[in-house]
Design a protein that fits this description.
The protein is an alpha/beta fold and 419 residues long. It has three domains: 9-173, Winged helix-like DNA-binding domain superfamily/Winged helix DNA-binding domain (Arc Repressor Mutant, subunit A), CATH 1.10.10; 191-267 and 372-400, Periplasmic binding protein-like II (D-Maltodextrin-Binding Protein, domain 2), CATH 3.40.190.10; 271-369, Periplasmic binding protein-like II (D-Maltodextrin-Binding Protein, domain 2, 3-Layer(aba) Sandwich), CATH 3.40.190.10. The chain is 48% helix and 16% strand. The protein is built from 17 helices and 14 strands. It has helices at residues 9-21, 24-31, 35-49, 65-89, 96-100, 106-118, 121-128, 132-146, 162-190, 202-205, 208-219, 232-240, 279-283, 303-313, 329-338, 351-355, 385-400, and strands spanning 54-57, 60-63, 151-154, 157-160, 195-200, 224-229, 246-250, 260-268, 271-275, 296-297, 324-325, 343-345, 359-364, 371-378. The strands form five sheets. The chain has a five-stranded mixed beta sheet with strand order 6-5-7-14-8, with helices on both faces. The radius of gyration is 26 Å and the shape is elongated.
């Protein structure tokens, strides 16, 4: 886990103000700090970041590139914190500065989210690599600062209070924004550093994402990419809280949440798949005979299940009874090899088995099963320069597949970029 400096949010707010007004004296009154205290706060931040934040000149303070990268993210993160504190305190008009003047630190925010995820102080401390008293003190200091009880013990677990629950999603988004700012500074030091966290659904795992990752890794050897697999609903929740940067795979027909947008990049046409030597493969494709063999398809609620049912109904047939419902491509492929089972699958998902002569395409499933493949992201996501480079690589690989690619869904811009 990243070593998180004990960044004081009030000092970060002061940094943003100094950057905007161009001097210590002009900013002093706005941040309620004396000029010596403000100068010391800026100097401390420079020590913590290990970078110069301003060029001191007789006419004022000129922001360095590091500050130009930091300030937009600081302002976004502080806005999340302020909204979170407002929700926790049920205060509709608590100004952002009131939230950050309470001596809140980034470490305290990390501690709260860690305890919520772990369900105990001891497990949270282990995951964070700190002592249990340290993480307990951090959470209690945050509670004291914003004057809200944040945790309650129930049996052997520690759970968030209703007030903490109201603020946690926004606090996680703030933490993600602060972490992105540290990534930007790391990249500024080494030019190749940085991190990306991807949520990946089954269709993208076999061919598409490996192609993207291989090309991206060659171009950015210092970057770190974390790929997370899981059920769609779980991945979507992580995306909305900032734990994932992007969600890759088959898009939903309707936006899953108001704060999420989708970008389609190409269409995929699943086909009917069975083992090599399957009776339908040898006799030629006859849709009427699909009812004669067992099927394995994902459970009700999965998009592929609805498309599979539509495939039969468009032919005037009721879908056959499913003896096995399964969404795991690995298990499905294994089952197909055992007997005369059938399934719907993207050609990418059984490419290696087809090349090895183990599985084959029985027939096309028709336009009703076509699905759009692409990206889902938060509507207000502000990608780092490295994340922007990954998006460009992903779009380029999709375009090279010979499919229709869309590049106009969202104008990405990284901090400090003009225009």
């Amino acid at each position: 886990m990243r070593a998180t400096p004990e960044l004081n949010l009030r000092h970060l707010h002061a940094l943003a103000v100094v950057s905007h007004v161009g001097g210590i004296s002009a900013a002093s009154a706005q941040v309620n700090l004396s000029q010596p205290a403000l100068s010391q706060a800026i100097a401390r931040l420079e020590r913590q970041f290990g970078l110069a934040l301003f060029e001191r000149q007789p006419g004022g303070m000129i922001a360095t590139e590091a500050t130009r990268l930091l300030v937009p993210r600081i302002e976004r993160a502080l806005a999340y914190v302020a909204r979170g504190v407002q929700l926790a305190r049920r205060s509709r008009r608590l100004p952002a500065i009131a939230a950050v003047e309470r001596r809140v630190t980034l470490g305290q925010l990390h501690a709260l989210t860690a305890v919520d995820a772990a369900g105990s102080y001891s497990l949270a401390a282990t995951r964070q690599g700190v002592s249990q008293p340290a993480i307990y003190r951090a959470v209690q200091a945050l509670a004291d600062s914003i004057e809200v009880v944040l945790t309650v013990r129930r049996g052997k677990t520690v759970q968030p209070t209703p007030a903490a629950t109201r603020m946690l999603r926004l606090i996680r988004l703030a933490v993600a924004e602060f972490d992105a700012s540290l990534d930007e500074l790391d990249a500024l030091r080494s030019k190749t550093a940085g991190r990306i966290t991807l949520g990946v659904m089954p269709l993208a795992r076999a061919i598409l994402l490996p192609q993207v990752l291989a090309r991206f890794a060659r171009a950015h050897p210092g970057a770190s990419v974390n790929v997370i697999e899981g059920p769609y609903a779980e991945l979507l929740g992580h995306l909305r809280e900032g734990a994932l940067d992007l969600l890759i795979g088959a898009l939903r027909d309707h936006l899953p949440a108001r704060d999420v947008i989708q970008e389609g990049l190409f269409d995929d046409d699943p086909v009917i798949v069975g083992r090599s030597g399957h009776p339908l493969a040898e006799a030629g494709f006859d849709f009427r005979r699909l009812q004669d063999f067992p099927w394995v398809v994902a459970a009700t609620g999965a998009p592929v299940r609805a498309r599979w049912e539509s495939m039969f109904r468009e032919q005037g047939q009721e879908p056959p009874r499913l003896r096995i419902e399964c969404g795991s491509v690995l298990i499905i492929r294994g089952l197909l090899l055992e007997d005369d089972w059938l399934t719907l699958m993207s050609r990418d998902q059984f490419l290696f088995e087809r090349r090895a002569g183990l599985l084959c395409e029985i027939g096309t499933a028709g336009p009703s099963v076509r699905r759009r493949i692409g990206l889902a992201m938060r509507a207000d996501w502000y990608p780092t320069r490295l994340q922007t480079a990954f998006l460009e690589t992903f779009r380029a690989v999709c375009a090279e597949r010979g499919q229709s690619a869309s590049h106009s869904a969202w104008p990405f811009r990284y901090p400090g970029q003009v225009g």
